[in-house]
Structures are given as structure tokens and as C-alpha cells.
Amino acid sequence: MAVLRQDIDQNIQRLEKFYETDSCVYSNLAEILKKEKEEGTSKMVASCGRALFWLTRTMDFTAGLLRLLSKEMSSKMEELVEECYMTTLKPHHGWIASAAFKVCLKLVPDNKTFMEAIGARDESYDTLREDIDTLSSLLTPILKEIYFVLEQYGLSRLRSM
């Protein structure tokens, strides 16, 4: 998971660095995407557009995984991760990223370890389920809005290697 975390951190840093070049002008993500589109750099590997695209896909994957987990707490984590990957990330991955995912799938923790890592406080997981449902209800409209913005700037169909 360290590789995924590093990728997420790099994408966040890329957006922060651009924002810091002129925080008044680039006070929102749409302004950053607009600037890159004007320059013709929005689809380049090191662009903020691509960084936002993959951060959004990662959040979509995470939210989807948590929703699946909330509904199917007794299912194996590996199965839930794979199911969520197939619907959220795989359509945007090339063969290299898909192959890397298969390797990472072997490193998915068991349910108990994962539940403890995300802060499960009771054996029945009722509180965790409520927290997941609340997070999901808050995150879903935000993700929809980001996807809308990505679509406006022609960034909704990027692929990895």
C-alpha cells in the first residue's frame, strides 16, 4: 500500500504546488484545470488535471470499497477490493496497472486488521457501519461534482499504462 500512498501524496503535492504559485488566481480546482487546458498541458503525465483525475478515481474506489464493506462485513476483504476495483479503477487502467493491481491484491489485509486500521470500535461494527454510511452520503455528491468538472475540461477518460 506504500506505493499507492506515495502516488496519492504526489498528486496532492502537485495540486498544492500549482495552487501556491498564485493562491488568489488558483483558488479552486477549476481555475487550475482551465489554465492547463489553455496551455495544452492538462493531459500530460505530470499535470494537475491528471493528478485530480486519479485522486478522484482513488476516492471513488475508497468510497465504493467502504460501501461494499458496510453491506458485506463478513465478506473477505480481498474479494471486496477486487469487486470494487473492477468497477471503479480497472476501466481506466492499462495492462501494466492491472497487472500491478493483481500483485497488490495479494497484500490486502484480512477483515479484522482492516477494520481495526480504520477505527472499528465495537465487535458488531455498528458504529463503523454508521460512520461509513455518513461518509458515503457526504462524499458522493462531491465526487459527482468533481467528475462534472473533469468532464468540462475533457479529463474524464484518461487511462494509465
From TrEMBL:
Transmembrane segments: none annotated. GO terms for molecular function: lipid transfer activity. InterPro entries: GLTP_sf (IPR036497), Glycolipid_transfer_prot_dom (IPR014830). Signal peptide: none annotated. Residues 1-119 form the Glycolipid transfer protein domain. Pfam families: GLTP. Gene3D superfamilies: Glycolipid transfer protein. One of its GO terms (cellular component) is cytoplasm. PANTHER family: GLYCOLIPID TRANSFER PROTEIN 2 (PTHR10219:SF80), GLYCOLIPID TRANSFER PROTEIN-RELATED (PTHR10219). This is Glycolipid transfer protein 2. It comes from Arabidopsis thaliana. The gene is GLTP2.
